[in-house]
Design goal:
Shape: globular
Order of helices and strands: EEEEE
Length: 64
Amino acid sequence: MCLSTVYEVTAEGREKVCEYVSTVRAEDGKVYLTDIMGLETVVQGTIRSLDLVNNEILVEAKGA
């Protein structure tokens, strides 16, 4: 099973937002992340990159 860690990217750098993410959905300027336990986290911004080999997702913070 491949699960990802999501980082929010800002002008100051990047910060871990969520681990063990199994589902990602982006709409209306928000990124919806659901982890393996079903907990949903919402981040304002857009997907910047997906690294499926290293299981990393970067989300560009709105206004960054």
